[in-house]
């Protein structure tokens, strides 16, 4: 069973606890600092006091003393009026600037967090910050808990995502954005000075030292503090985060919670630091520069001491934090979840029996255990097959008109069965509707989309983990275990319907399961690179799974997935989404251009991130994500380039998953490792997942399924699969005959017991549509979408075998082939089989050379059509039809029969009979363009232009807003040149 690992359980040694750290030397104030402070004071005095005084003395009251009359609108605008308007503007600007000054002073004196933002005051607040910084540079408060105040005012725009030296260093461990080169040099100088000061302090053994502390900073935009980044800034090595963790593990914080996992920290917490920590953000106690409230909190925390390590690890989860963590379980669930957890349980229930069977009977557990991936692949495969059928019908590619698509064989057939068993389309639908419904609800409340790092699908609930608290979620969502979790139950999720809202989180992708919960990581939102280490073959299996799910998932509108170093064949899954680049050089060139373009587009649109472009008035922009999957090991130089690109990528909707042979990839915000045993480990995140994989063999099989669906694939090979043909003469009367086209009827069998009839009839229908055989696990998954045990499945198969009985020779009518798949005897027939056989015999058999036989068989075939497939099927059953393409095959087959019979009658100039045959086919295939064109030709053959005009008007009304197809319009132009005048008059 999967378990959660913590950073403290890795077994690596941690640094010693140092209660007497060395102090950090503070730079002495120079004469220039005092001059700058004086000038800043004069500027603030002039702007805050001088401006309103001058306005009051020289201009006076600028607004009218009474209510304006209607004549005021027609008066001439004088110079005095213009001056008064300008005075009002200056007063407003002064009020805004004064508010900025007060906010900056309050933030500097409080020593807690970053200054708040005054709405619309970007340049004003930046100027206020610089002046306040210069003024306080010589004061005691400049050395308090306000980190890097001067740098924040010099190189960062308030409205942008760029920060000062310290904040920029927090964006990606060990990396600064290229546009902040000056800040980078300043940070390097500060670090060098701090190192020098620390070395001097260590050499002075006689100096008394004080304990150092760090306060966890509140989130700023999409950035949040982490122990790794704190260690990177103040210890010089992010890997020393464990020393900080060990110093503070299980110690009681002011809010009553404790640090139990290295990835889960909350703003405002106090962290005791190792003795060699350095940097301006640290606080030494005692310190007169710290506010009394902060001193009291730090002293209380210091008194907690090291005894907190004696507390037992009881599985508590820290409250808040920005990294991925496991949602708290609420006990046994009463229903199945939207995540395919039931499908996974179904597979575990039947895995033991299949494992004990012959090797040919088993299915790929990698595909069976990936319910969301399997559902996406099946939908994409079905779409590809429908598209191929229509193309074949219009162009007769390979002579496939009216024929069956190729039946997969070998590994491709096993892969298709595994997809059918593992797919959870209901889970995909609920996930998609839930996310879009959340976006619509937030937009209705004029609230922005929160940044979501991950989604957990567990025990009938959907948990969204936010990067930072975002307030109360809109109903029916509810708060989760803390302020960074929003939860939706399956029952509430079913209330959502389809909506036109843009998909809010298209970058979510399944990584694996943990304690029966499935984790979907939002690659688009990760603040930097996600690195994946491990053996090359294991990494490739993870990359293939991620690429395949992103390319076919059902909870995103559109996206671009760039593959580098693997997956050239995977582009066949979704050519519109997937693209393959030859190397890292091409990747960096492409991404540099796109990064510039997205930054410019966001700035021009006035958005701070792609999330604001997916909700509210701007949702039409549909900011699509671009996810880069780089399986090849980048060089050191290439890794640095990627890290620079990824520093701001999450804001731009770009995600990076990079494979590496080591675990120290520059710019990696989250590090993961795939083991040979199929475990996905992320120590910093506290995760140990059973990884979702797509191994090389299954990848090839899936790609083969999609390649076979292409009508132009392998032109030298077999273009079609001959249909299952039956004897359509009187001597070929079947023992069991099922009518599926129209109401479901079974002839030749007694009606089973009421409690068994529904399942037996459904199982027989599934077998009749798959004469090639059905895997028992596929049958069970179709009949029991929420799972079933193997004994129940086997019992149903035995009842079905007994119900169907045996042929006169004693052979059972329900058997099995050499692979263990269930097959029906030729004595069990459906009207679908007869329909295909009549058409085949009329066009390629005896009817090909005998006109009378052809006409009789085509007429008999149309008579069999009594309505849509399984017209009276009960609600809630036959959901497996969503994975079939029979709904596309049947109308095409009936249209082919109607066209063939129409041609048969027109050969003898029987236009009325031809029209009658075409109208019969149109009742089942009303959108078939070929039938429209032929009925126009047949009507024209009657010689009645009014009738042809009426038929054209009827087809135009059926076409809706799209209008007639181009071929139909061209045909009408030829047969009835004046048809457009009639259409215009009718409109």
Tell me the strand order in the biggest sheet.
6-7-5-4-9-8-17-16-15-10-14-13-11-12
Which regions contain 5 or more consecutive residues with pLDDT less than 50? 1-27, 140-209, 306-322, 331-360, 397-403, 715-719
| Number of alpha- plus pi-helical segments | 31
Bin the helical content: 40-55%
**Apparent shape:** globular
The overall strand count is 22
The gyration radius over C-alpha positions equals 36 Å
Organism: Streptomyces monashensis
Transmembrane segments: 34-61
Protein name: Bacterial transcriptional activator domain-containing protein
Biased composition (Polar residues): 1-12
What does this 3D model show about the protein?
With 987 residues, the chain is α/β, with parallel strands linked by helices. Among the domains are: 36-63 and 78-109; 220-276, no CATH class; 422-706, Rossmann fold (3-Layer(aba) Sandwich); 736-883, no CATH class; 891-984, Serine Threonine Protein Phosphatase 5, Tetratricopeptide repeat (Alpha Horseshoe). 44% of the residues lie in helices and 10% in strands. The strands form four sheets. The protein has a 14-stranded mixed sheet with strand order 6-7-5-4-9-8-17-16-15-10-14-13-11-12. Strand 6 (478-479) and strand 7 (485-489) form a beta hairpin. Helix 3 runs antiparallel to helix 4, helix 12 (371-395) runs parallel beside helix 26 (886-906) and helix 29 packs across helix 31 (979-986). The radius of gyration is 36 Å and the shape is globular. The two termini are 67 Å apart. The relative contact order is 0.07.
């Amino acid at each position: 069973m999967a378990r959660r690992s913590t950073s403290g359980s890795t077994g690596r040694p941690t640094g010693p606890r140092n209660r007497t750290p060395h102090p950090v030397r503070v730079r002495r104030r120079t004469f220039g600092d005092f001059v700058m402070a004086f000038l800043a004071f004069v500027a603030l005095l002039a702007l805050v006091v001088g401006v309103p005084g001058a306005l009051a003395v020289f201009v006076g009251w600028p607004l009218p003393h009474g209510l304006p009359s209607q004549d005021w609108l027609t008066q001439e605008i004088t110079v005095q009026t213009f001056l008064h308007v300008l005075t009002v503007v200056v007063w407003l600007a002064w009020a805004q600037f004064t508010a900025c000054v007060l906010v900056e002073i309050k933030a500097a004196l409080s020593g807690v967090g970053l200054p708040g933002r005054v709405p619309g005051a970007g340049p004003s607040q930046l100027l206020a910050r610089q002046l306040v910084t210069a003024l306080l540079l010589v004061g005691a408060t400049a050395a308090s808990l306000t980190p890097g105040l001067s740098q924040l005012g010099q190189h960062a725009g308030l409205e942008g995502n760029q920060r000062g030296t310290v904040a920029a260093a927090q964006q990606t461990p060990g990396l600064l954005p290229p546009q902040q080169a000056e800040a980078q040099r300043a940070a390097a100088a500060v670090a060098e000075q701090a190192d020098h000061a620390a070395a001097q302090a260590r050499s002075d053994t006689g100096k008394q030292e004080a304990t150092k502390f760090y306060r966890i900073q509140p989130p700023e935009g999409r950035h949040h503090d982490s122990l790794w980044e704190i260690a990177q800034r103040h210890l010089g090595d992010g890997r020393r985060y464990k020393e900080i963790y060990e110093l503070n593990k299980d110690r009681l914080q002011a809010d009553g919670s404790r640090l139990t996992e290295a990835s889960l920290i909350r703003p405002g917490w106090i962290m005791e630091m190792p003795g060699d920590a350095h940097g301006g953000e640290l606080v030494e106690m005692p310190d007169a520069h710290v506010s009394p409230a902060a001193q009291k909190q730090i002293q209380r925390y210091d008194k907690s001491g090291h005894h907190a390590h004696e507390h037992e690890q009881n599985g508590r989860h820290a409250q808040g934090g920005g990294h991925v963590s496991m949602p708290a379980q609420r006990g046994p669930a009463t229903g199945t979840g939207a995540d395919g957890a039931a499908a996974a349980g179904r597979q575990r229930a039947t895995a033991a029996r299949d494992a004990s069977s012959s090797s040919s009977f088993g299915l790929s557990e990698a595909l069976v255990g990936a319910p969301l991936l399997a559902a996406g692949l099946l939908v994409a495969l079905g779409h590809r097959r429908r598209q191929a059928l229509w193309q074949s019908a219009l162009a007769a590619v390979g002579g496939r008109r009216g024929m069956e698509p190729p039946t997969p064989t070998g590994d491709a057939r096993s892969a298709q069965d595994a997809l059918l068993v593992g797919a959870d389309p209901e889970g995909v639908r609920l996930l998609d509707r839930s996310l879009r419904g959340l976006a619509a609800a937030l937009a209705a409340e004029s609230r922005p989309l929160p940044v979501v790092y991950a989604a957990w699908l567990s025990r009938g609930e959907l948990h969204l983990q936010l990067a930072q608290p975002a307030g109360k979620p809109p109903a029916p969502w509810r708060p989760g275990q803390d302020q960074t979790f929003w939860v939706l139950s399956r029952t509430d999720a079913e209330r959502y319907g389809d909506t036109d809202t843009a998909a809010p989180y298209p970058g979510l992708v399944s990584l694996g399961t943990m304690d029966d919960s499935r984790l979907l990581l939002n690659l688009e939102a990760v603040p930097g690179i996600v690195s994946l280490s491990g053996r090359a073959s294991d990494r490739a299996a993870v990359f293939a799974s991620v690429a395949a799910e992103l390319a076919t998932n059902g909870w995103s509108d559109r996206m671009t997935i760039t593959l580098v170093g693997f997956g050239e064949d995977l582009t066949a899954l979704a050519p519109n989404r997937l693209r393959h680049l030859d190397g890292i050089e091409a990747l960096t060139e492409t991404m540099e251009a796109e990064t510039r373009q997205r930054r410019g587009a966001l700035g021009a649109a006035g958005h701070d991130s792609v999330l604001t472009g997916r909700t509210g008035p701007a949702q039409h922009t549909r900011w699509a994500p671009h996810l880069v999957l780089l399986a090849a090991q980048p060089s050191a130089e290439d890794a640095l380039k990627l890290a620079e690109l990824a520093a701001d990528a999450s804001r731009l909707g770009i995600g990076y998953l990079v494979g590496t042979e080591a675990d120290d990839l520059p710019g990696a915000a989250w590090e993961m490792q795939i083991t040979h045993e199929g475990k996905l480990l992320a120590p910093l995140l506290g995760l140990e997942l059973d990884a979702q994989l797509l191994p090389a063999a299954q990848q090839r099989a899936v790609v083969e399924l999609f390649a076979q669906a292409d009508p132009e694939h392998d032109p030298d090979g077999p273009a079609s699969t001959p249909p299952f043909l039956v004897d359509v003469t009187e001597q070929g009367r079947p023992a069991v005959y099922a009518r599926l086209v129209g109401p479901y009827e079974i002839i030749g069998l007694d009606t089973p017991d009421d409690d068994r009839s529904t399942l037996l009839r459904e199982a027989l229908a599934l077998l009749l549509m798959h004469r090639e055989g059905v895997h028992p696990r596929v049958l069970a998954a179709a009949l029991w979408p929420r799972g079933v045990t193997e004994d129940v499945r086997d019992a149903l198969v035995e009842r079905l075998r007994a119900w169907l009985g045996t042929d006169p020779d004693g052979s059972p009518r329900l058997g099995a082939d050499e692979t263990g798949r269930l097959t029906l005897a030729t004595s069990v027939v459906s009207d679908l089989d007869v329909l295909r056989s009549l058409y085949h015999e009329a066009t390629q058999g005896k009817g090909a050379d005998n006109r009378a036989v052809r006409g009789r068989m085509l007429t008999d075939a149309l008579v069999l059509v009594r309505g849509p497939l399984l017209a009276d099927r009960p609600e809630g059953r036959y959901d497996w039809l969503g994975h079939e393409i029979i709904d596309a095959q049947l109308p095409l087959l009936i249209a082919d029969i109607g066209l063939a019979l129409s041609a048969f009658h027109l050969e003898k100039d029987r236009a009325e009979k031809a029209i009658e045959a075409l109208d019969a086919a149109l009742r089942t295939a009303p959108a078939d363009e070929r039938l429209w064109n032929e009925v126009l030709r047949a009507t024209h053959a009657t010689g009645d232009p009014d009738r042809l005009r009426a038929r054209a008007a009827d087809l135009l009304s059926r076409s809706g807003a799209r209008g007639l197809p181009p071929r139909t319009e061209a045909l009408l132009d030829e047969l009835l040149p004046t048809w457009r005048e009639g259409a215009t008059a009718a409109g």
